[in-house]
Fold Transglutaminase family protein.
Amino acid sequence: MLIQVGYEIAFQLPQPAPMLLMLYLHPTRELTTRQPDRLLLTPSVPVQEYYDSFGNRCGRIVAPAGQMSFRNQALVEDCGLPDLQAPYATQAEVQDLPSDVLIYLLPSRYCEVDSELKDLAWSLFGASPPGWPRVQAICNYVHNHIRFDYLQARANRTALEAYRERVGVCRDFMHLAITFCRNCNIPARYCTGYLGDIGVPPSPDPMDFSAWFEAYLGGQWYAFDARNNIPRIGRVLMGRGRDAADVALTTTFGVSELASFRVWADEVVGTPY
Amino acid sequence: MLIQVGYEIAFQLPQPAPMLLMLYLHPTRELTTRQPDRLLLTPSVPVQEYYDSFGNRCGRIVAPAGQMSFRNQALVEDCGLPDLQAPYATQAEVQDLPSDVLIYLLPSRYCEVDSELKDLAWSLFGASPPGWPRVQAICNYVHNHIRFDYLQARANRTALEAYRERVGVCRDFMHLAITFCRNCNIPARYCTGYLGDIGVPPSPDPMDFSAWFEAYLGGQWYAFDARNNIPRIGRVLMGRGRDAADVALTTTFGVSELASFRVWADEVVGTPY
Amino acid sequence: MLIQVGYEIAFQLPQPAPMLLMLYLHPTRELTTRQPDRLLLTPSVPVQEYYDSFGNRCGRIVAPAGQMSFRNQALVEDCGLPDLQAPYATQAEVQDLPSDVLIYLLPSRYCEVDSELKDLAWSLFGASPPGWPRVQAICNYVHNHIRFDYLQARANRTALEAYRERVGVCRDFMHLAITFCRNCNIPARYCTGYLGDIGVPPSPDPMDFSAWFEAYLGGQWYAFDARNNIPRIGRVLMGRGRDAADVALTTTFGVSELASFRVWADEVVGTPY
Amino acid sequence: MLIQVGYEIAFQLPQPAPMLLMLYLHPTRELTTRQPDRLLLTPSVPVQEYYDSFGNRCGRIVAPAGQMSFRNQALVEDCGLPDLQAPYATQAEVQDLPSDVLIYLLPSRYCEVDSELKDLAWSLFGASPPGWPRVQAICNYVHNHIRFDYLQARANRTALEAYRERVGVCRDFMHLAITFCRNCNIPARYCTGYLGDIGVPPSPDPMDFSAWFEAYLGGQWYAFDARNNIPRIGRVLMGRGRDAADVALTTTFGVSELASFRVWADEVVGTPY
């Protein structure tokens, strides 16, 4: 299956400002990207690329005053299969985890592992079988506990706040699920990228980038999605980190206002190879 | 100058639990450590060492049920000079910072850069000259704003909470100062280690580990200390990270209760070399 | 397409010895691995896992005296398409490469970039159009220059030696091609993994692990294979590094003798999903 | 003790070329640098700084055609003590080493661990007591085996070649010693920096940058110097890596010719503080 992904985003800046960009496909997608993404900037300012400590591909620019817009499009191969299910995946003991994975057990900006959510996690999920079923129980709980509402998005809502407010967008679902996983000693990390409507009824909402998370079970990472809570086809990863603080699509060091925004991720049928 | 540093810490565990330890001198101290630290564990359980993504030396154990105690002592050389002062150190533009430093501009667990502290930072420090004087202005403000009180320590107090509660211990001073620095586009990171009373009147309080922070100015990192707010002699680094969440001395995955605690850092005078 | 990959390898050790293992699928394969690999050790000794600085999944054991065998099998999804071809992929100027990629321009154990191969590279490939065509010219040259001969494998043959001896196995082809690429200022890295006979006539030789390489063109990495020199289907990555010195499948700190060896990578047809 | 270190280096380039620079003090020196180094470039071209995967501070430029010169000077504090001696430092078993240290056991560009030096190492040093005495035995051997001769420097001489040719400069001594250490399962890494004549008779040779190495014993790294083979005062680190291939002071992607070269590292006596 071929999926065309892309976006057009524009900001308005009253004065020049440095920006960090995480607007690329994740390096793990490279070998299955038929038409690589090419970040187009208008006006055309030089981009300095780097990889952050999580392995994400990033860019840096100095945006001039006025409108700054970003456009990108790529054609990616996808096996077209729903998220891998491994219901018997076990949960490693903390002492058996690779050292590099331990950071995904610790508190982070939006995941207050060291809060009242800790006791709550054990009371809610302590009775679930450890491993895959426990992560699934967490997803079920979060899926039902939080009500999705686009109009109630807030850039700095934490897992604890999402738990209390019971409302949020996809990142809030993930932050709460990630926090519960870590509280159950299951490493969990945050993912952001494209997710179209392949295999599900089209959403009436305008498309946005999507968030999901990965849990470390049985020696590897698996994708979970506490918002949709069904296996989905066609996740196209852009960035991974401890939580959304590590993978903001753009970070402006100064004032910028979103002027326009469009994202797409569509199956391409019948393309001649 | 030679400084003897060390500690004795004991925990009580109702049942076996994995623990992460950051109870070592920082690798940057190795070449000036006359008697290296040797972590003694009672009971003697095997320690698996690793370095985390910030370069800190760490250990992992499975602590048995009962009392688990840690003892360490080292003799370190120190030039015996107060913290380096560089009042003319300039502040790099964000676009000129090395990419690896950018992470220290972003929000982290206890440093809510993406909060109301942002506007506050600019209103409080926007008029200070950029660079060293601005970091000093931040330290002055935080030093006066927060009241030190050991009895009001709280393991998960954030910078914003410290700002509102106006009370805390050294880590709270640092988290608030770090957050203000980042809000002023100055990279800042958290440090933990030993700091004795060398060159200052002895403190009446029992000695604890100390926190300070580093700000990136003019192409390198400099130590600052918003609690003491005077140049001090004899900081002996153990760990560095985004904030205290990255450098907890011990992390227990399970229940543990502090049973005893003693830390020392004393100048050794007249030692035969 | 589903591909079943696996191996059975056994060593004979006269006495116990520590071993490093790179016997896992690469983490980038995780989300498309239908039946994850499970490393089986006989005798069953504990494995401590870690990720190396290149992001490869690794294990450490202490192998007892006697026979030590490793068995693994996994079922991976693959889009079933040949290696991505991007004949118009351009070559970035060195000054525009991300900093993290620069290491793949430097000399490494088996790739003597700082040797007479440098002048040779420019004389052989300086007239080829830069970018993809130049990498292809390098592959063509190496493919024709070296004669494949299993019996002439040598664990420490370098690129320069392969150039002179004009004989080798797949790793020698790659080392020479990587060295030429680096000499033309094109970052190149070494890959190891499974490659079955999908889409090509079955090989009469017993199957072995395979080597290929990746070149950095137009902002991303692409797979090349100087030995086969045709786009192939079904590369299943295990490890990546500067050259074969970084991704040895096993490293024994002591004496071990290969006792048996079998690798497979076969398309699975008609599996019920 | 205060040490003034610095250099003036100039190259002649027939045409513009990108360059990598490792011309800074190592970050571990930051907190004891009284007057930080400031890299002056003539002509003044913009420098983009980064840290490499070993933690070294690096710069990137595009040098114009003509003369390109670099000047730097810093004032560093130093405890003024000779290299730390720890004759009872033990040698960890390979299985007890931190995972991040394992890379310093493997072959690298100039350190052919996987060569005939392996058997030689065991025959020469297998009878020495493991740990510190074995590293010292290696230094003694190399110190006597190789004759220092500036005129016989060669940029790509390997440890094996140095062993056979029995002549070289400081980097050759270190590469051979490092290779022997690794062959004895002792992690070893290469260091480059300043080393003046403090405490020893002044050298008649013009001063150059110096090389030394570090061996991992008893849980930490210690400095060794197979060329001088006596504890020295005042090593000021600039870069660390697997071997010299990782820490070239300058790397030009194109043609450059050394036009002038001067290095200094002198104790500053009687400076008003």
